[in-house]
């Protein structure tokens, strides 16, 4: 729902958006199998989804894991198995932008999400 063509205004509206709208903006592409099954191209990322890192440094590229947390303030997700070394040598979770991952397996424990996917399937048929 972009109202302006200007990049500066788009960025401003994204970063000044309230949290309930910002949450909707944190979405990722679905894998080809999921796209065919649900007739959707992308979906909101939630904790528990299995994702594959599609872009980034070679050390994280191609890693597949469950989403451990979704940070609505920054638009990033943390994936199990994707870590970065801190200055003291300890490993910590590395945040990855939601657009840089692809959802390979959905967490269908949320009834509202199940209902949304069922509606999308019905409309496409």
Strand and helix layout:
Elements: H1 7-15, H2 19-24, E1 27-30, H3 32-38, E2 42-44, E3 50-53, E4 64-71, E5 76-85, E6 91-97, E7 101-105, H4 111-124
Parallel strand pairs: 1-7
Antiparallel strand pairs: 1-2, 3-4, 3-7, 4-5, 5-6
Order of helices and strands: HHEHEEEEEEH
Measured by DSSP, the beta-strand proportion falls in: 25-35%
Shape descriptor: globular
Task: Please report the total strand number as a whole number.
Answer: 7
Biggest sheet descriptor: 7 strands, mixed
- First-residue to last-residue Cα separation: 26 Å
Q: Helical proportion?
A: 25-40%
Alpha-beta classification: alpha+beta
Explain this structure to me?
With 125 residues, this protein is an alpha+beta fold. Helices cover 29% and strands 33% of the residues. It has helices at 7-15, 19-24, 32-38, 111-124, and strands at residues 27-30, 42-44, 50-53, 64-71, 76-85, 91-97, 101-105. The protein has a 7-stranded mixed beta sheet with strand order 2-1-7-3-4-5-6. The relative contact order is 0.18.
In short:
29% of the residues lie in helices and 33% in strands.
Defining traits:
125 residues; alpha+beta; seven-stranded mixed sheet; 4 helices; 7 strands; 29% helix; globular
